[in-house]
Amino acid sequence: MKRRALLQGMVLLPTLPLLASQAPSLLAETSTAGATVVPLDKPHEAWRELLSPAAYAVLFEEDTERPGSSPLNQEKRPGTYICAACYLPLFDSQHKYESGTGWPSFTQAIDGHTGFKRDFKLIFPRTEYHCARCGGHQGHLFDDGPAPRGERWCNNGLALRFVPQGSALPALRS
């Protein structure tokens, strides 16, 4: 663990009970109940030959790219953001906004196309989300986004591909 992340987590230790009590409601509001996406039965290692080393590290080793490093931060065209591994559509561009964090951010995902798990890597609990089809790590969901939903889906740019409106979506990879 990096020293800075450890120190930041230690500063937040006194707030852990408060954060933990709020996290379940965030998970409940974004449940994938009724999802129609069928998960792939493909080991994470099998994706390595299809992805760049950096994209593989983010998607299947839960790495994080440097803030401000993704060209998708500057993407303003209408279109669809898809999983960089299996090409499942995850976000519509109308829900993208500038959060000031350095990562592509969205106010909501396409219903049923993401799954969730609790992440304690920075000591305090966070809601990690991943592609519901291939299981690739996308980013974290926070409750500090704009109205009306108040959600900030903070995504790694390496975990996404952008398909401009009017272009055909690529066939899902399996």
Automatic annotation (TrEMBL):
The record's listing under InterPro entries reads: Met_Sox_Rdtase_MsrB, Met_Sox_Rdtase_MsrB_dom, Mss4-like_sf
The EC code for this enzyme is 1.8.4.12
Q: Does the keyword Zinc apply?
A: yes
Question: EC class of this enzyme?
Answer: oxidoreductase
Give the catalysed reaction(s), semicolon-separated: L-methionyl-[protein] + [thioredoxin]-disulfide + H2O = L-methionyl-(R)-S-oxide-[protein] + [thioredoxin]-dithiol
Q: Which GO terms describe its molecular function?
A: peptide-methionine (R)-S-oxide reductase activity
Annotated MsrB domain residues: 44-165
The region annotated as signal peptide is 1-20
Q: Is Chloroplast set as a keyword in this record?
A: no
Q: Which UniProt keywords apply?
A: Oxidoreductase, Signal, Zinc
* NCBIfam families associated with the record: peptide-methionine (R)-S-oxide reductase MsrB (TIGR00357)
Its recorded name reads peptide-methionine (R)-S-oxide reductase
Organism, scientific name:
Pseudomonas lalucatii
Classification from the root reads: Bacteria, Pseudomonadati, Pseudomonadota, Gammaproteobacteria, Pseudomonadales
